[in-house]
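In response to the reviewer comment on reproducibility (Comment 2.3), we provide here a single inverse folding case reported in full, input and output, so that an independent group could reproduce the run without further information from us. The structure tokens appear first.
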């Protein structure tokens, strides 16, 4: 196995969009500070880091809602406007 260091930017340029999104998610998870929580959408690649503990979370990428306690989806009629 080669032990040469590869610059991170060069490595990331070789990844497709899906792999780049997964790498960004991994980096964010590794960088979480005490008291921070990651909310990630199950439908799209959107995630956000929160310092509070919301019970219900709406994705800003696709507007899907989820209960963060039981992880059930909100009713299809629920929207971010009904927070």
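Designed residues, in position order:
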């Amino acid at each position: 196995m080669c032990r040469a260091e590869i610059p991170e930017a060069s490595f990331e340029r070789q990844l497709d969009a899906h792999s780049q999104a997964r790498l960004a998610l991994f980096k964010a998870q590794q960088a979480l500070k005490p008291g921070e929580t990651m909310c990630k959408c199950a439908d799209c690649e959107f995630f956000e880091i929160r310092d509070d503990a919301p019970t219900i979370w709406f994705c800003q990428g696709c507007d899907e809602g989820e209960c963060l306690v039981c992880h059930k989806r909100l009713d299809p009629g629920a929207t971010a406007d009904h927070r």
